[in-house]
Amino acid sequence: MRNFLYILALAFVVSCSESPKVIDLHPEKVSPDIYKVLLDNEHVKVLEVTFAPGQSDGMHEHYAMTAYVIEGGKAQITLPDGTVSERDIPSGATMHNPTITKHQVKNIGNNTMKILLVEQKG
Predict the structure, then answer these.
(1) Which of 54, 85, 107, 110 is the most buried (most CB within 10 A)?
(2) Cα-flanking dihedrals φ and ψ of residue 6, to 5°?
């Protein structure tokens, strides 16, 4: 009987405790003022990305992605381990990353940066 009461109490405590929260690291959720979803279906998500001078997004993740830089600029990229790099990103550049990426970006230039980003799903 004592074991039964112990198990019952343990089950009660577990059922009343909060489940761990899942953090949504999609860029449009983390920084909706920067990432505008143009299309989202089962195959791809297309984002219009706009960084004003000095503007920074929050740490976020991308699926495998391809990007076209409409208006380039100078960006500071921070990785989850704290590594920071600066990049000059020219207008008209294209980029592709075949893996999931996690980072934070800040526009450290003097002009607005605009990027068309296509994330591949699945």
Answers:
(1) 107
(2) -65, -45
What's the rounded mean pLDDT across residues 73-93? 97
> How far apart (Å, rounded) are the C-alpha atoms in residues 84 and 120?
26
Distance CA 24, CA 63 (A): 13
Cβ(91)–Cβ(116) under 8 Å? no
**How many structural domains comprise the chain?**
1
Model confidence, pTM: 0.79
| 9 located within any domain | no
Q: What is the CATH number of the domain that holds 69?
A: 2.60.120.10
> Which amino acid, 92?
G
Mapped onto helix, strand or coil, the DSSP state of residue 26 is coil
Residue 46, φ and ψ in degrees, nearest 5 = -105, 125
- pLDDT tens digits, one per residue of 8-22: 444 444 444 444 555
Full domain range(s) for residue 73: 24-120
d(CA 25, CA 4): 42
What's the pLDDT score for residue 24? 84
Query: Does any domain span residue 71?
Result: yes
